[in-house]
Design brief:
11 helices; ten-stranded mixed β-sheet; Rossmann fold; 416 residues; alpha/beta
């Protein structure tokens, strides 16, 4: 199979140019007037949830898959909003007829997370008590709160139990929370390029981004919606974060030490190198589609994530889960490296739980979970078929246990 360019630019700018296998889709809205009591003890009401669905829900309601997005994602996971859209949804390569999440088989759901800025209630939403954006009066939310809102959405759609909850990065953390917090509501958990807890190094990168936003004079303690936004700080936050999504090999392949539009150094403080220009472009583009306060709140929610917190061990926390697990990592991902996925695997196997694992050999870094769709698809399809077969009484669909403890080779075959 072909492999993506390890130096490919971030899929966040345009996940799938002019594709849209599910066609034109519409973002819908669910209103939760009674809101939610948050993990912090605060109450947030009302709550609006933006979501999209793809495919058809089966009469037995056993084909629903919830896809959870990462930090900068949203409810628009696949398809086009208009026929002339330049870009399809952020996960479009994975969702559609014949794709990893085959919409001829599965009913796929994606919603914007609580605290976001793409239709779900967040700090840029209007506070009904004041008629102004919440800003920093918005309560701190956690991934558990985000999942609780998703649970309300799934129930609204008439689904008691999901075939699968899937996600990469922060989305994988949400999938793990689903399996532990709502064990009777999910048959399988697909946790991709993620970890059982946010590491100190990852927290540190997030804190640099938060400090960049808060140091921007335009931030105004979060009350910037009537004036200029803290775009300079948000752009720096995105630049720092984006570095963690790539690998050294990816940056070397795409940029090396090549100069940008010149033959010699400029001997000034402007852009000399292509990598500098690329990061500035990523930062500037991000400010046009994301809210700075949402960045603060969502990164804090990720940093709070620790699946084993309050339990004797990670295995004790995971023991509540009844789902089958597919864990997937990527060899060059240094944000959530394979060792963290193996920690999850060991805990599950210690409990005797159904756990499959696959590491894909990729030079794309953390972004591989959005780029390696051709090599991920057979694994994802096979796992979903197996779980669906077990649940509906159609047979095991394959052997349980560990799917692959080595790396996936270029043709998708396991290798040591």
């Amino acid at each position: 199979m072909s492999r993506p360019d390890p130096g490919a630019s971030s899929v966040a700018l345009c996940a799938a140019p002019q594709r849209g296998g599910v066609g034109v889709v519409e973002t819908r809205v669910l209103e939760l007037p009674d809101g939610l009591e948050l993990e912090s003890g605060a109450r947030l009401a009302p709550i609006t949830v933006a979501y999209e669905t793809y495919g058809r829900l089966a009469p037995d309601r056993r084909n629903a898959v919830l896809v959870c997005h990462a930090l900068s994602g949203d409810a628009h996971a696949a398809g086009l909003h208009t026929p002339d859209d330049r870009c399809a949804g952020w996960f479009d390569d994975f969702i559609g007829p014949g794709r990893a999440f085959d919409t001829d088989r599965w009913f796929v759901i994606c919603s914007n997370v609580l605290g976001g800025c793409k239709g779900t209630t967040g700090p840029s939403s209007i506070d009904p008590r004041t008629g102004l954006p919440y800003g920093l009066s918005f309560p701190v939310v956690t991934l558990r709160d985000m999942v609780a809102v998703q649970r309300r959405l799934v129930a609204h759609l008439g689904i008691d139990r999901l075939l699968a909850v899937a996600g990469g990065s922060m989305g994988g953390m949400q999938a793990l929370r689903w399996a532990v917090d709502h064990p009777d509501a999910v048959a399988s958990c697909l946790a991709i390029a993620t970890a059982p807890r946010q590491s100190p190094q990852a927290i540190a990168f997030h804190e640099i981004g938060r400090q960049a936003i808060q140091a921007d004079p335009a931030w105004r303690n979060g009350a910037y919606h009537a004036g200029p936004a803290p775009d300079a700080g948000l752009a720096v936050a995105r630049m720092v974060g984006h570095i963690t999504y790539l690998s050294e090999a990816a940056m070397q392949a795409k940029f090396g030490r090549r100069l940008r539009g010149k033959e010699e150094f400029g001997y000034d403080l402007g852009n000399d190198f292509e990598v500098e220009s690329y990061l500035r472009h990523q930062g500037d583009a991000f400010t046009r589609r994301f809210d700075a306060n949402s960045y603060l709140y969502i990164t804090k929610a990720i940093d709070y994530f620790d699946l084993g917190r309050g339990e004797r061990s990670l295995a004790a926390a995971l023991a509540r889960a009844r789902a089958s697990f597919l864990l997937m990592s990527f060899s060059s991902d240094w944000l959530y490296p394979t060792a963290q996925t193996r920690e999850l695997l060991r805990a599950l196997l210690l409990n005797g739980q159904d756990a499959s694992f696959c590491e894909i050999d990729s030079a794309a870094g953390h972004d591989a979970f959005l780029l390696e769709h051709e090599r991920m698809a057979p694994v994802l399809r096979g796992f979903l078929e197996r779980v669906h077969g077990r649940w509906t009484g159609g047979g095991d669909g394959g052997e349980g246990g560990v799917l692959a403890q080595g790396r996936k080779g270029p043709e998708g075959e396991g290798s040591a």
